[in-house]
Design a protein that fits this description.
- By secondary structure, this protein is of the alpha+beta class.
- Helix content is 24%, strand content 18%.
- The chain is built from 19 helices and 25 strands.
- A 5-stranded mixed beta sheet has the order 18-17-19-13-20, sandwiched between helices. A 4-stranded mixed beta sheet has the order 1-10-9-8, with no helix packed on it.
- Strand 2 and strand 3 form a beta hairpin.
- Helix 11 runs antiparallel to helix 13.
- It is globular and about 75 Å long.
- The N terminus is likely disordered.
């Protein structure tokens, strides 16, 4: 997880990151496999049996495991880590702000550091970053129920929590109890794990079944209904699920199943992760030669320019240089010319981060659709792309893009057009201009809106938009906040315009969390626009319930058109690649990444929110000392500036 470049993660994605991943449909002729054996047992907490789960209506899971299941696995896809990788060293990264909590759920838990917490909680299955087929993770085998909405899993008997306690089916059953509890103060989780996950059943210590609300295409079963474990022995032994749970767990370190665990917290300054001793998945095929640093230290550096100075001195190992200013201007000079620092430009094939300018339609001004359309035509994104962004970025036409046939390619973005902007503003009653050139209505109200954002390097882009918008009579008041504070304001729905992006993942776009009335005008939900449309609500629910791929594609096209027609989102930019720089001691495989790498020097498990494409970097033993000695003595290496366009054709 590269916190220097992290786009904010949606609550939906974070919930699914507890265990849900997406992948291709099960093979037509599945490979049957023997189920793994029984582990040596380590005692768990002495806790009473969990109460039965409530199933809203209809039948839940069968009481006994069906005897006609075909258990499948996947150990045939190629490994993607480098066999040359070595273990050791401290990987030094940075984060823009200190997290407001170490909880994975509940108030203030959805900040940028959430990735380090959630990506260290492994899922039942992951997905291969090249073949996009499911691969074992916490589960060794899986089977699909005949009803199209049930999945059965066999848990790896060697799987352990970071405190050494075995992971069992009970931890997955507890996940449902946990996420339905009001004590966690997380309405999205409460709703999802009640309405979308109908039932879960433990058949023995290492076998479970999960039933979702609706039948799904095989390719989307894992995305929708695969859940992750929650350590019951921690939450019910040390922190009861009751009033006060949020406060009592705010700075507690929860056991996890991934390769790293929080080892040191210096509040306001840094957080250090350490590799789990004898991690249970070290020798598994798809995790071998990955997650190589022994420690990962995230230091708070609130300003990107300051962080780059630390990188240039060798105090940070890598740095994201996707933005044109950094790639073309700052990532230059003697250390780059002499090959001490390398530059990597790598095209990928991923869903594009969605978002842009999210307009809060609950505010009086932005409740008017004419105002929203006028604002869209007042934004000169082409000028930003051609000047500030050096022509490197592309205009994003819709809210969600990069899902293949689900993309509605007929939608075109509203272009900068002063005449059209003026017509919409006139229709909204803003027909006059004050002495500063800003439009006013009959009551003297100025056409002024606040844009909240959390990254200082976006200021230059927003200043261009601000100056161009004045031509249309619009005043953009730019509000730069600390990243956590900005996102907190957005989740509490106290913004006017949110300038931000959601990381996207999976095989199909999601609409319920962003646009359904259930999430409007409520804090801590992803509906930042407070959009509410009964007609769209109905279509969203039909889309969620459909198991027919062609029908889902048709409905996704209609839903994306509805988003466009509402005007609550003004899409901004898309970038179909990553660009990073690294000191020579930070090493990558020969291909540098995979087609689903959301970043290259990503030290954790997931870089895209879906595919197991991270954790490939390693640190050369004594590499920092050798490179710095060479620097002091004026020596040079082969210049490192590489561009990998293998995946470019399908992204443009």
């Amino acid at each position: 997880m590269r916190f220097a470049k992290l786009t904010l993660i949606p609550i939906a994605l974070l919930a699914l990151s507890l265990g849900a991943c997406s992948g291709e449909a099960p093979p037509d002729e599945p490979v049957a496999a023997d189920v793994a054996g029984t582990p040596s047992s380590k005692p768990r907490a002495d806790l009473p049996p969990l109460p039965p789960l409530e199933v809203a209506e209809g039948d839940g899971l069968p009481e006994t495991l069906p005897d006609n299941l075909v258990w499948v696995t996947n150990n045939d896809d190629p490994p993607f880590a480098s066999p040359d990788a070595v273990r050791g060293g401290t990987y030094r990264d940075y984060m823009r702000s200190f997290p407001l909590t170490l909880r994975r759920v509940g108030p203030d838990s959805n900040g940028s550091f959430a990735g380090a917490l959630r990506y260290n909680q492994f899922s039942l299955v992951s997905f291969h970053p090249e073949t996009r087929q499911p691969i074992p993770s916490l589960a060794t085998h899986w089977a699909y129920g005949e009803d199209g909405r049930t999945i059965y899993y066999r848990i790896d008997p060697d799987a352990r929590w970071s405190d050494g306690v075995p992971v069992t089916a009970e931890d997955f059953v507890f996940t449902i109890h946990f996420n339905r509890s009001e004590a966690i103060v997380a309405p999205w989780y409460n709703n999802y794990y009640t309405e979308r996950i109908r039932d879960i059943r433990q058949y023995d210590d290492y076998t479970l079944g999960i039933q979702g609300a609706d039948a799904k295409p095989g390719s989307e079963m894992h995305t929708s209904y695969s859940i992750g474990p929650t350590p019951r022995h921690f939450h019910e032994s040390e922190h009861r699920l009751a009033d006060g749970w949020v406060e009592s767990t705010n700075w507690e370190v929860e056991p996890n199943t991934g390769p790293y665990q929080i080892a040191d917290v210096k509040k306001g300054k840094s957080i250090t992760l350490e590799r789990v001793d004898n991690w249970w998945a070290d020798d598994r095929k798809y995790y071998r030669n990955r997650f190589n640093p022994e420690k990962i230290r995230y230091t708070v550096i609130r300003d990107q320019a300051t962080a780059f100075q630390h990188f240039a001195k060798g105090d940070l190992d890598t740095f994201d240089v996707t933005t044109p200013q950094y790639w073309h201007e700052k990532a230059t000079g003697e250390d780059f010319d002499k090959g001490l620092i390398g530059k990597y430009w790598y095209y990928n094939q991923l869903p594009v981060p969605s978002g842009g300018m999210i307009l809060n339609s609950a505010t009086p001004l932005l409740a008017n659709r004419d105002i929203r359309f006028g604002l869209a035509h007042s934004m000169n994104f082409d000028k930003v792309i051609n000047t500030v962004l050096r022509g490197d970025y592309e205009r994003m036409p819709t809210f969600q893009l990069g899902f293949g046939p689900y993309d509605n390619r007929s939608i075109k973005p509203r272009e900068f057009n002063l005449q059209q902007a003026g017509e919409y503003f006139d229709a909204a009653g803003f027909t006059e201009r004050d002495a500063t050139g800003i439009r006013t209505n009959a009551d003297g109200q100025r056409l002024a809106v606040r844009v909240t954002y959390g990254s200082s390097h976006h200021t230059e882009r927003l200043v261009v938009l601000k100056e161009e918008a004045k031509k249309a009579g619009v005043e953009l008041n730019l509000q730069l906040l600390d990243r956590s504070a900005a996102f907190k304001q957005m989740l509490e729905k106290k913004h006017e315009i949110a300038w931000m992006q959601w990381n996207s993942s999976g095989l199909s776009p999601r609409y319920w969390e962003h646009f359904h009335t259930d999430n409007a005008n409520k804090p801590q939900t992803n509906n930042l626009s407070n959009h509410s449309n009964p007609e769209m609500d109905e279509l969203i629910m039909r889309y969620r319930a459909s198991s027919d791929i062609e029908e889902r594609i048709e409905m996704a096209h209609r839903l994306e058109q509805m988003v466009h027609d509402s005007g609550v989102i003004i899409p901004t930019f898309q970038v179909p690649y990553v660009r990073e720089s690294a000191w020579r001691w930070a090493r990558l495989p020969d291909k540098f990444g995979t087609e689903t790498s959301g970043s290259l020097f990503n030290e954790l498990a997931l870089s895209s929110g879906t595919f197991s494409s991270g954790g490939l970097v390693w640190l050369e033993p004594d590499g920092r000392e050798n490179v710095m000695d060479a620097r002091d003595e004026g020596e040079a290496f082969t210049r490192l500036e590489v561009v990998n366009t293998d995946n470019r054709a399908s992204t443009l």
